Amino acid sequence: MPRFVVEADGGSRGNPGPAGYGAVVLDPVTGETLAERAEFIGVATNNVAEYRGLIAGLKAARELAADAEVRVRMDSKLVVEQMSGRWKIKHPDMKPLAAEAATVLPRGQVTYEWIPRERNKHADRLANEAMDAGRRGGQWEPSASTADLPPQGPPGDAAKGAAAVRAAMASGGATRPAAPADSAAAAASGGATRSAVPADSAAAAESHPAPAGTDVRAAHTAAGPATPSGPATPGTATADVRAARSAAHGTPSAGPAARDVAADLRAARTAAGPEADTLFGEAEALAPVAPAQTPAPGSAPAGAAAQSPAGLAARGAGAPAAAAQPRATAGGTGTGWGGPDMGAPATFVLLRHGETALTPQKRFSGSGGTDPELSEAGRRQAAAVAEALAARGTVQAVVSSPLRRCRETAQAVADRLGLPVTVEEGLRETDFGAWEGLTFAEVRERFPDDLQAWLDSPKAAPTGGGESFAAVTRRVSATRDRLLSAYAGRTVLLVTHVTPVKTLVRLALGAPPESLFKMELSAASLSAVAYYADGNTSVRLLNDTSHLR
Hints:
The protein is an alpha/beta fold and about 550 residues long. It has helices spanning about 45-65, 75-85, 95-105, 120-135, 160-170, 210-225, 235-250, 255-270, 305, 310-315, 375-390, 405-415, 440-445, 450-455, 470-485, 500-510; strands at about 5-10, 15-25, 35-45, 70-75, 110-115, 345-350, 395-400, 420-425, 490-495, 525-530, 535-545. The protein has a six-stranded mixed sheet with strand order 8-7-9-6-10-11, sandwiched between helices. Strands 3-2-1-4-5 form a five-stranded mixed sheet, with helices on both faces. α12 links the parallel β7 (about 395-400) and β8 (about 420-425). α1 runs parallel beside α3, α5 (about 160-170) runs antiparallel to α8 and α7 crosses α8 (about 255-270).
């Protein structure tokens, strides 16, 4: 059964006065925005607007999946307690709204949770955008919204300190100005630049032909802004986070204010403890740990060698496990790009399998097809990558997708390194259903409606019961966490496919889903991601094919 988180809010500038609501549907695993709703409703009270936001959020969740389990999170104690059945509904304006909300989805599918206002900023900003639009004489338009916050990991995480993490990410630290007097949000129309519509469908088939990427990009362009690159208003969270990023990479212009933002994030991570590390998986690229000192002009940041691809080999061999390393603290004085030395990371060297007969033909080749073996070219590629990894001497374990092409590639490397191969089901490729073995053009000709739905939404599955890319993201995230626990502080070769590799890289960067369109991933290519004990990640390598030349 699908599961969603709905965050909703409403506001009135006058109570009663000009009012609006906002609601957002989130994926509870990835934290990605699945739907947004907002509307200016004329003159109304705060409570009426809050109920209208709840109804809109529940309807949006129902449109995504009528059988979904929904966790509603609101900062309105009144609405949460009344809808939970603990408080009576006495006001005549509230009764019909509560009754309507109760009928959107079956009562057993919906639960309610009160959250502090600072953890409901996305819906709050949507409500203020709606009120701003009403003040201008119009209505809220999704394509013009800037309410979406940067990805923050699983919403609703009850681990200690999770609220502090979300508050730090949303507020940008102490450098933000106070909210306007007539605003019920931290920012009425500013804040973090909007992320694009979720599009894990960007991680296309084993060898996705160019027209697919073109079609998907066109779909996202039509849906709204496709990249988080819009202008930042001074004082907004976007500006602060960008400044924090500059400070973290040693840019002299960032200044102490940006380092304060990074310090807030470090303090939040410390409070959260190890249970909440997943909250930082997608946030690290937006606000990495800032250095204690700004490097002198022309000098390399301290620790840069360890962060470089060459440093990967130096730190991988013989490194102690990182499980017992201390966590970063707000007062840490570490130097370089990564803050305090957290010990050896768990490093995933990501190897896409060698070619099969389907690869040069650019056909969908997932986990639901014929499970092809390596071609002669693919076997040569596997031998070449085995020699390259043997020369580096850093790989300490080999883990493979269960599909034959990966197991053959992994075995070639493992035999050369003298290591066993462990098979991990979670590393398999997407199941492309009835599209297996077809080219993109053939799928477009035979299943045009299904293909368009798949391109438009990561929740849509290929024809014939295939696997959606949202499902793949959840599977790969869970697999990553298991492997990080099993191989703390070690360098592990993961032999897998296009979709898992791109998904791991995207999550490590904290990049939006459409970034997958911009990654090239060749057969038998190497990529690498390091995962530190404090939750930091570092993408070390992407699509290295030098060993094949």
